[in-house]
Amino acid sequence: MTDTHPFLPRLEHAFTIAIDLSRPYWVKPSARGDIRAAIYAVDGTVEGPLLNGKVVPMSGGDFPLQRENGVIDFDARYLIEADDGAIIYLENRGYRWAKSDDVAGKMRANESVGFDDYYMRVTPKFDAPAGPHEWMSKHVFVGVAEKLPGANRIHYFVVR
């Protein structure tokens, strides 16, 4: 059955960010009882129909909280440099969790797993300068992410 709700949003692929990550630095357990990590954005590329550029090396990273139930709560912030030289701030929040204990173990060991073996979604916000990229600061986005060994690839969709 297709949802025909009159307010059903339309998603348009905006771009994909392929980001290489540093090794994780762990705070375990944190004072809150969960495990906190710091993983830095080493470099990366931005490619798509609406934006192209690169990740500014070491301009930030992810500081996820790993809950006891295996859910990873992302809090990533770093800079993108568009092909025209504009600097765009990215703030990403989201969740990742494995669909089985076996997959969770492989992900912890930084091994490859199938895309359907886990859930990894983000809700980004962009702070872009006035001009051609200003639209990014006026729209809601969702991201569907892939966990790769030592990297993430996140496909961003603008909600129309």
Descriptive account of the structure:
There is one protein chain. The protein has 160 residues and is mainly beta. It has a single domain (11-159), classed as Porin. 5% of the residues lie in helices and 52% in strands. It has one helix and eleven strands; from the N terminus they run E-E-E-E-E-E-E-E-H-E-E-E. Strands 1, 2, 3, 4, 5, 6, 7, 8, 9, 10 and 11 form an eleven-stranded antiparallel beta sheet that branches. Strand 7 and strand 8 (87-98) form a beta hairpin. The longest helix has 8 residues, at 101-108. It is globular and about 45 Å long. 26% of the residues are buried. The model has no long low-confidence stretch (mean pLDDT 94).
Termini separation (Å)?
A: 22 Å
Domain module tally: 1
Q: What is the H/E order?
A: EEEEEEEEHEEE
Portion of residues within helices: under 10%
Tally of contiguous helical segments: 1
State the secondary-structure class.
Answer: mainly beta
Number of strands: 11
* Oligomer description: single chain
How would you briefly describe this protein structure?
By secondary structure, the chain is mostly beta strands. It is 5% helix and 52% strand.
Main attributes of the structure:
1 helix; 11-stranded antiparallel sheet; 11 strands; 5% helix; mainly beta; Porin; 160 residues
Draw up the topology in text.
Elements (H helix, E strand, L loop, with lengths): L10 E11 L3 E3 L7 E13 L5 E3 L5 E2 L2 E2 L5 E11 L4 E12 L2 H8 L9 E10 L13 E8 L2 E9 L1
Antiparallel strand pairs: 1-3, 1-11, 2-3, 3-4, 3-5, 3-6, 4-7, 5-7, 6-7, 7-8, 8-9, 9-10, 10-11
